[in-house]
Amino acid sequence: MSTFQIDFGESTSRIVGIDLGTTNSLVAVMDLTGPRILSGIVPSVVSVAESGDVIAGAEAREMLLTDPERTVYSVKRLMGRGVADIQEELKLFPFRVATGSDAVLQLQLGDRLFTPPEISGHILRKLKLDAEAALGEPVTQAVITVPAYFNDTQRQATKDAGRIAGLEVLRLVNEPTAAALAYGLDKRKQGIIAVYDFGGGTFDISILRLQDGIFEVLATNGDTHLGGDDIDNLLLKIALEDIAFEWGEDISGKNDAVQLLRRGVIDAKEQLSFVPASTIDLHYGPRRYRREITRELFDKLITPIVDRTLAPCRACIHDAGVTVEQIDEVVMVGGSTRIPLVRSAVENLFRSRPHTELNPDEVVALGAAVQAGILAGSVQDQLLLDVTPLSLGIETMGGLVSKLIHRNSTIPASATEQFTTGVDGQRNVLIHVVQGERELVKDCRSLARFDLKDIAPMPAGMARIEVRFLIDANGILSVTARDVRTGKEHSVEVKPSYGLTDDQVEAMILESFEKAEADFKERQVREARVESDTILAATEKARRNPAYDALTADERAAIERSVNELLVVYHGDDYLLIRSKIDQLNDATQSLAETMMNTAVSGALKGTKIDA
Amino acid sequence: MQFYQSLGVEPKLSLDPDDLKKRFYDQSRLWHPDRFSRSSAAQQQQALDMTALINDAFRTLRDPVARAEYFLKQNGMELSKEAPPELLEEVFDLNMALEELRGGDDSARPQLIDAQSRFESMRSQIDAALAESFANYDASQDPKILDDIRAALNRRRYVSNLLREVEKELNVHVSN
Asked: Would B114 be classed as within a structural domain?
């Protein structure tokens, strides 16, 4: 009896590429012919239904209008941040921060609390399920893109989100670099390119050298809190003031009205990329608000926002050590690059017409799939050499920063520093690690405090502990320490300044992973049963066909046996077993099916009248 | 000379930038963690360590100043941190002018712009002299040349710091 074996071992399953965007997310995979998008765009919106079910994607975006209190968007802005950093964000976005969120930021949706990585985890899980449905196999490994200018904490939070969704994140790849991979594969093999990536909530600029299949990032710069969102908020604020004046009523406290208006503002903004004037239109209850907005006015309003992208561009060109003339091409990525003012600003700065022929919404996901192909070994001739966007340093006397790894260093990168004790008999040395370009600790981003513990008591200055800082290919820091005298590895206790501890992530994974596994299995079982129903019904029907009687006794017995065996496993929950019995029945009925087909064809021909 | 070894180049002070880049790319292709994503944990760690070393090496060796500093340290020579005596008078005048500009006196500006171009030309002279010393040392291995290089590096760092200071002040106090 033949059984059908599917190897679901992790080493052979496919690695997907995911663009986890502020506004929209996408999943793609590498095929023999190149990268392809696996399913439609998934809006990066998460909602908790009355039933308590968590919904992500297009359905959740609709709930933003009906259930704004239970729905959240643009959560990427909160990834890896503490309550203190998001005060500006809170003025502009309807994030409902749970009380007592001092240590770890939590949002309230309905009566449930979620950390930003958990919310992103739900978006990732939706993408994972979509990918599994499209591929017909489990998806367990992924490459996820992040803004190039994301710091260590934001990267770590993204990796946590992947783990919570049941995905092993094999690599975080920078969004503009991913776009360059997709672009380079398609269009240009050699030269210097700039990628201008202006998305929903983040801005990145990267300059790369493409040579002999190597994509070497020369420099990167950006702003992780600048995007189309800011344009929406600006227009929204103006429209709200306008409405308050026209209606004599301030509706900014009414969440459903604000979300409806926000949708109207986004529509008007998007239209303005193609027509010289559009209208912000709001129907709220019996009332209606309409305001025409010309592109001229729009351009004037958003000029300050667009200008904020130019300083990072200039800094990036400088850091890359190239002149504007040496840059062969500028590639535009992200939905906000559809805005004509953005295009003309880029053209002015780089003195050449930017490339806009790639779909700016898809190119990052496609590039992530290429990187997944590189990791899987199916793409062999390309290699990405990326950089760390921010300098890494440690706090020294007087709150000053001593830089260990400079920004735009190719990663992986490492630095070693020796530490000693300042007091006789001192047992611990505390090391404060920061990220940023400023000279004072208070102006940089605190990453973590590392405690070197259990130092043998000795006179001050005698201890010699060598600490190695290593930034891996994901741009994430790890620290190891060694006692120089004894050569012994030293324990390093990490206290992340923001974000989740490993234990917290583990707990969240446990909760969601079990759920995700169960979900996948359940769906597979359901699908296998549906398939069984189909083949059983077809077999039942065929038994009444004269062709059935023409079979040999052995053939009929094989069919009977296969039907019975399928019925036995039908109600079990082993979908692989059900599938193997389906295949067995398929094999057993093959000659019957062929005979029936021939009869049907000849029967059909007999009935044909040929008109003279 | 671990940095030289990791890229497979002779430990020399003069290096051909194109050759160095080619070796960097070749070694990256061989060792990058992307090539080991499905290997054992031990192999992944080795790839990570090797790639970090290759990257650190290329970053250091491609820059003539960083390369020379590394070379000297590997030869057991500490870099000097003293102000070069021949520059002291210059520094004194410069600090006066910087103070004036900080105090809002724009008349110091021409003097600073003048100093800026003088330091720039000083730095390019040092760079040219360094390149010559590199070639001389590579040919003769004469340790006395390393002393000259050390002095030149010290002078260069000092001039660069002054230049940075001047540029910073000129940019902060933009003339109206």
From this structure: yes
| Higher-pLDDT residue of A143, A605 | A143
Both B100 and B46 in one domain: the answer is: no
Does B102 share its domain with B166?
Answer: yes
CATH code for position B12: 1.10.287.110
CB contact under 8 A, A374 and B25: no
- B94/B159 same-domain check: yes
User: Is the confidence at residue B80, as pLDDT, over 50?
Assistant: yes
Q: Helix A590-606 and helix A575-588: axis angle, to 10°?
A: 50
Give residues 23 to 82 of B whose Cβ lies within 8 Å of A: 25, 28-29, 32-34, 37-38, 48, 51-53, 55-56, 58-59
By mean pLDDT, which of A423-427, A587-591, B87-91 is the weakest? B87-91
Q: Provide the β-strand partners of residue A418.
A: A466
Range of the domain at B160: 85-172
Closest chain A residue to B47, measured at CA: A412
Q: Per DSSP, what are the bridge partners of residue A72?
A: A46
Q: Which of A130, A132, A175, A204 is catalytic?
A: A175
Structural domains of chain B, count: 2
Query: Which residues are within 8 A (CB) of A35 and not within 5 positions of it... i.e. 6 or more apart?
Result: A17, A28, A29, A182, A185, A365, A366, A367, A369, A370, A373
Beta-bridge partners for A141: A15, A168
- Specify if B11 maps to a domain: yes
Asked if B43 and B101 sit in the same domain, the reply is no
Instruction: With CB atoms and an 8 Å threshold, state whether A412 touches B33.
Output: yes
CA A68, A73, A76: angle at the middle one, nearest 5? 155
Neighbouring residues of B71: CB distance < 8 A, sequence distance ≥ 6: B11, B13
- Assess if residue B25 is contained within a domain: yes
The model's pLDDT over A252-299, given as tens digits with 9 standing for 90+, comes to 888 889 999 999 999 999 999 999 999 999 999 899 999 999 999 999
Higher pLDDT, residue A413 or A428: A413
Choose the weakest-confidence range: A168-177, A188-197, A554-563, B104-113: B104-113
Instruction: Work out the mean pLDDT of chain B and round it to a whole number.
Output: 89
Residues B107 and B38 in one domain: no
**B57 and B103, same structural domain?**
no
- The helix (run of H) or strand (run of E) holding residue A578 is helix A575-588
Kindly state the average pLDDT of the residues A192-200: 94
The answer to the question of residue B71 being in a domain is no
Q: What is the mean pLDDT of residues A145-160?
A: 93
Please tell me the predicted confidence (pLDDT) of residue B144. 93
A19 is catalytic: yes
ipTM of this complex prediction, to 2 decimal places? 0.87
